[in-house]
Amino acid sequence: MKARKKIKTKERILQVAVKMFNEQGVQNVTSRHIANEMGIAYGNVDYHYKNKEVLLLAIYKEMRSEMSNSYLLREEYSTSLEHFHRLLAHLEQFQYKYRFFNLDVLEISRTYPKLNKILHKTIELRKEQMANLFIDFINDGYIEKRIDDRYNRLQHTIRVIITFWLSQEDVLSSFKYIEKGEMSRHIWELLLPYLTETGLKEFDRLVTRFGYL
């Protein structure tokens, strides 16, 4: 039996930081809090991550890498709509994994300039990737080709929902859209009016096989 690989202190700090940020919010957690949670001297945290921006940058780089794989890696057997469906499911799970970032994204972007710069680059990248997904939908016959800006607005609306889904859970709690899979369901309901007959059949197959999460 192979021995379990020991997690390095630097990696463990990231894991504990994410957990504490999720529970308490970014502004309420310091390196001393993280060190106390880990049972180490706070100087060890500062040695690996000299300030909170450096720590958040390291977390965000992991976040960016994880989601980039989901946007880009389409399994050979899957259709473009199945890729999109699986992407939405991963995005929703991803948001809960890094809950703090989605809830505090505006504050984080205003407070930490280096992170703000990378965040805006990521936003532009995701915009391009979402547009490419729609090109695949058209080429595969799942949605009709259009020459107006409707798809651009639809793509933007989808990105807004993804970015602020957790915030609406807190702010608009009376609407009760808190069940897992609801984000995917909302986005699909925006897309449904644009699906061709072929697209609708594929959508039915996906929901029947996978559900919304």
UniProtKB/TrEMBL annotation:
Residue ranges: DNA binding: 30-49
Entry keyword set: DNA-binding
An example Gene Ontology molecular-function term: DNA binding
UniProt-listed InterPro entries: Homeodomain-like_sf (IPR009057), HTH-type_Tx_Regulator (IPR050624), HTH_TetR (IPR001647), TetR (IPR025722)
Annotated HTH tetR-type domain residues: 7-67
Name of the protein: TetR family transcriptional regulator
Organism: Arenibacter certesii
